[in-house]
Amino acid sequence: MTDSVEARLAELGLTLPVAAAPVAAYVPVVEAGGLAHVSGQLPFIDGKLVTGRLGEDVSTEEGYAAARACGLMLLAQLKAALGSLDRVERIVKLGAFINSTGDYTDQPKVANGVSELMVAVFGDAGKHARSAVGVPVLPLGAAVEVDAIVAIKA
Length: 154
What we know:
The protein is an alpha+beta fold. The chain has one domain (about 5-15, about 30-150): CATH 3.30.1330.40. The chain has helices at about 5-10, 60-80, 105-120; strands spanning about 30, 35-40, 45, 50, 90-100, 130-135, 145-150. Strands 1-2-7-5-6 form a five-stranded mixed sheet. It has a two-stranded antiparallel sheet with strand order 3-4. Strand 1 and strand 2 form a beta hairpin. It is globular and about 45 Å long. It starts with a helix and ends with a strand. The mean pLDDT is about 95.
């Protein structure tokens, strides 16, 4: 039987990607004290990593889509670790890291890609605290990386 979050994803026309394997010495999700800590996830669109720098060769709109893709991968990692997205009680905090030039200041607009996705999927439980930080480089040249802290039901 499909869980209610899965049904909501279907209503939104969204399909979760296959949860990506770690590319270094870490695990994708750690469950502790009623929280799931999700490692930083990179943006894959149509199976291809979105690379580049905001303010240089990636537009704000492309960055928004990349952040949204990171959000889909966060959900895929949560589903793989928890067994069901219905175990998500609330999205507590998102950390968005945007590969950007020193004069680029629209990091919050880029991070809205993942923030708006969480609200669309979880409603009020998707509203969260957030950081949106510009960085000079990300792993594999990714344009965006997002990590999460999520309250979970037992």
